[in-house]
Design goal:
By secondary structure, this protein is an all-alpha fold. The chain is 79% helix and 0% strand.
């Protein structure tokens, strides 16, 4: 999987990242990585609460995009709202698909291996 991700230059998630303001700037990308790393470390080492790295990452990008839009006026608030809602709709769709698959697995197993 890692080879495929490298071959596709980051795949679908990279397309989402590139829609954000200044994410190709190494300083900005490093700051996002630093905050993401801190959040993941805190959830892993400090918190007993389970979490999804996808939701943390998209939430971090959304929060950053909102802050950039409000402070630097690169995009209108309406455009940023559409972008953020689109990102959350995509990961919610992915969540629903994965929950649906997990829910259907016992039934699919029963069909493939009847007693």
């Amino acid at each position: 999987m890692q080879a495929i991700i490298f071959y596709t230059h980051g795949g679908a998630i990279q397309k989402v990242v590139l829609t954000k303001t200044n994410t190709t700037d190494i300083r900005s990308a490093t700051f996002v990585d630093l905050i993401y790393g801190i959040v993941l470390f805190l959830f892993k080492e400090v918190s007993k609460l389970p979490m999804s790295t996808t939701w943390v990452f998209v939430g971090l990008l959304a929060g950053r995009e909102i802050a950039v839009a409000w402070n630097e006026k690169h995009r209108s608030r309406r455009e940023v709202s559409r972008l953020v809602l689109s990102d959350f709709a995509k990961i919610t769709f992915g969540l629903l698909i994965s929950v649906g698959i997990a829910y259907l697995l016992p039934y699919l197993h029963e069909i493939a291996h009847p007693h």
